[in-house]
Amino acid sequence: MKGQKLSMRSIRKILEYRLGKGISADQTSLALKISKGSVINLLKRFKDSSLSWPLSDDISDTALNELLYPKPAPRKISSEDLPNIEHMSKELSRPHMTLQRLWEEYHKDHPQGLKRSAFYRFYTKHKEPEVTMKMHHKGGDKLFVDYSGDGLEYVEKESGEVISVELFVCCWGASSYCYAEATRSQSQEDFAASHKRAFQYFDRVPFAIVPDNLKSAIVRADRFNPLVNRVFSYLCDHYGTVTLPARVRKPRDKATVESNILHIQRFILARLRNSQFFSLAEINTAIHEELELFNRSPMKDHGNQTRKQRFESLDKPYAKPLPETSFKIVSVKDNVKVARDYHISYKKHFYSVPWKYVGKRVEIRQSDHLIEIYYDHTFICRHPVLFS
Fold first, then answer.
1. CA 71 to CA 93: how far, in whole Å?
2. Which alpha helices (DSSP H) does 49-98 contain, by range?
3. Which of 64, 156, 200, 264 would suit a FRET pair with 31, their CA atoms being 20 to 30 Å apart?
4. pTM to 2 decimals?
């Protein structure tokens, strides 16, 4: 029974044994299989109460319990000592911040204020109501990435061919600050290049990138061990970030980017729907002009702050700085066999490697004007790219 509250039947039995029959605390403890400390504690509560023995026949269990275990009178807290819920919500969006840490800071400044459990209840009661569990993102932590289902198109001047383009969109979890651009495809090369330009636009790198399970990012979706495309993997290594693919058929994992894609479609694509373009560059010039307006538009749900303002205060101070050099790999080809003439084939051209690697499987990494060849993750040679 130690540590447990006594049942009302046990309480009445203890009182009857000790006060009615004069049985000792030791014997009462043995008879009722209740610790001696509990017996003594109950008798002390009885003496401190307004009760007298014998108990009145009409006293109910509820009334007896209230008299033996009175609830402490609630402390009156001045309005100056109550926590600021807006400040709490903002601080909790910062990296490494916890409700426990907020409580410690609050208690230091307001020793007569709410106790820890009351502080937690106050936050739960007054925070923004949620219909479902809402994901709270730490500043500088995650960048969410996806492609819009609807894109734009341009007309090739020479042939008159109408060419559709993809709309790449990424946004920060805490601030919803966005970057968008059009690309010719969702290839791994275009995907990596879009991230490179996005990081330059933000002048920051997130701690993690959360892509949907795009083939340009994820070769094989797996809950525990997803296989990331080589180009994208090397890009993450270069910028010191990691990939956290959204789970398959878990749309709330990427709710932030899905929501912002919808806003961008309504804000940017709707404005450009009647425009005619003759190159990819023209499309991106128009997109970037509208993107600046989009990121500087007030958001009612956040006190009319803009995405730009929220980025400057929530994400940018805690994200990683750009490395000194930019990412240069544009294509990777793995598992290439070295022929007997110690050459490898890459994009319809042949490149030589040291003869001792004949029959080995190597990896080719192409930058803008160079290809580098690696065996067993070790550099062996490089060549200028041969263009057709």
1. 36
2. 61-68, 85-92
3. 64
4. 0.61
H or E stretch covering 378: strand 378-384
User: ω into residue 111 within 30 of 0, thus cis?
Assistant: no
User: Which two tokens mark 40?
Assistant: 């003594």
Quick one: 128 exposed, middle or buried, by C-beta within 10 A (0-12, 13-18, 19+)?
A: exposed
pLDDT in tens, 320-360: 999 999 898 888 888 999 999 999 999 889 999 999 999 99
pLDDT bucket at 131, cuts 50 / 70 / 90: very low
For residue 343 the two structure tokens come to 């050459």
Residues 6+ apart with CB under 8 A from 54: 19, 20
Strand (E) positions, 196-280? 208-211, 218-220, 227-228, 242-243
According to DSSP, the residues that pair with 145 across neighbouring strands are 170, 211
- What does the alpha-carbon distance between residue 281 and residue 265 come to, in Å, rounded to a whole number? 19
